[in-house]
Amino acid sequence: MPPRLMALPTQLSQLIIRPAMQTSPLAFLAPTMQQQQSRCASILSSLSDNPSAYNKRIRRGRGPASGKGKTSGRGHKGQKQHGKVPAGFNGGQTPDIVVHGEKGWNNIFAADMAPVNLERIQEWIDQGRIDPTRPITIRELTHSRCIHQPKDGVKILGGSAAALKQPVHLVVSRASASAIQAVEAAGGSLTTRFYTRNAIRHILRMESHPFISLAWSPQSGPEALLKADGAPEDLSEANVMKSRGLKYRLPDPTRRRDIEYYRDPAHRGYLAHLLKPMEGPSLFFRSPEERKSTAGTKKEKILPENRLW
Question: Residue ranges of region Disordered (predicted)?
Fold first, then answer.
């Protein structure tokens, strides 16, 4: 095959060849050189794909040159080389999953929350199925079919947080950080409150108040939330139940995990007003500021005059 030469422009080849014709005695070879320089060389053999566009696959069972050796990575003899072994096969005896049972993979203590995005709530408001001037609780979300099964509670998710067009007042079980930020940026409020399955059932039957309980106080939710709900001036639980003819009280958390969650101002918990100054939401650990405040000033030890050390 002739050598592959890059084609030069015609003007450039003339500039290179003309001085050679004047000075070199081999000027009669100039036409031949010009033809070799300007010919179109074949580039088909030099074509290649983009880098990393092709990876050489391992061809199993093609001998030592395949990249996996003589036995193709299966080892020597046996059932695993000559056939297939089912998952969990234990030599023909009773499988371990039958003898010992299946354990794990399911947290029985996790709360099963019904998620709902702010975009879906805004869509329900645009359709007139939810009134944004009143507090939006588990009762409104369930009766409007925005959620179908409240389960252990409702968790608000941000989703398309920019879809919220007007201020809303939400009282739900939990909320994500993006949802809290979006609701407050729109001028609304969000409060998280503890619920049990029986409490949710009573709320849906109009037998319990959606959020006022023994531990609730005006500091738990904004003033606009209570005014929109039409609560009386006396916000005590007994007065609210008597004025509305309710039968059941709302429970408050008893487990430490739940108490710490609803005491945290970052979660907008309804028990955050119980925190003292420089006190954290944890019931077990104390913050460094709290430890410094309770430690007080350290007294200097005064040694007697006749003591050397």
Answer: 46-92, 285-309
In this predicted model, what pLDDT tens digit does every residue of 230-276 receive, in sequence order? 666 666 788 888 888 889 999 999 999 999 999 999 999 999 999 88
**What is the 8-class DSSP label of residue 47?**
-
Residue 166 lies in a domain: yes
Q: Is residue 134 part of a domain?
A: yes
Give the domain extent around 208: 114-256
Question: For residue range 40-50, what is the model confidence (pLDDT) as tens digits?
Answer: 567 888 888 88
Task: Evaluate whether residue 3 is within a structural domain.
Answer: no
Burial 97-118 (b: 16+ CB within 10 A, else e): eeeeeeeeeeeeeeeebbebbb
Buried b (16+ CB within 10 A) or exposed e, 238-266: eebbeeeebeebbebbeeeeebbbbbbee
State both tokens at 279. Answer: 């006190």
Residue 75 backbone class (left: φ over 0; alpha: ψ -120 to 50; beta: rest): left
Q: Evaluate whether 170 touches 183 at the Cβ level (below 8 Å).
A: yes
Q: Which residues contact 212 (CB under 8 A, 6 or more apart)?
A: 231, 235, 237, 240, 250
How far apart are the C-alpha atoms of 241 and 71, rounded to whole Å?
Answer: 79
Give the sign of the dihedral formed by CA 193, CA 198, CA 199, CA 203: positive
The distance from CA 281 to its chain's CA centroid, rounded to whole angstroms, is 23
CATH number assigned to the domain comprising residue 222: 3.100.10.10
Residue 266 lies in a domain: no
Residue 173, CA atoms < 13 Å, CB-side half-sphere: 22
